[in-house]
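Example 3.2
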Amino acid sequence: MVGAINRDTVVAVFLLLFCGVFYAASFQIEQTSYGTIGAEVWPRLILAVMFVLSSIYLFQSVRKGPDEAARHEAGFLSRYRNAILCYGLFLAFLLALDFLGMLLGGIAFVFLALSVLGERTPRQLAIHALVAVVSVGAMWAIFTFALRVILPEGEILAIW
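Structure, written as tokens:
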């Protein structure tokens, strides 16, 4: 089938359009007088890297050719189950951020993500809990104490 495109090509074109729109929007970023570099530098740098990676993605997707003709929704859901669950967990994390705060919400998110993706034996669940507490706790401490970033504390920790 000549001229047929696959889903990866559509996603790559969407990402390139996304980069273009946001690069154009970066010219609307307000210039400040207190920084050593402009506020638009980091967004443009990230968009440039994303543009290069999306271009490579587009090139590879065009080279791959069209998708298989028949795919069922059940096949799609089973194939992307982990990604869908992780996005769902992240949405739940964002929705619970005001109540749980960054520390407790982050620990819950990391623990649940590891548990969804990995084994669920008692030993593995203990490891998941340890990894969640240490990694999120360390990042929270770095941002809170070393970098002096004010993170959402949530309603639970605000009581103490």
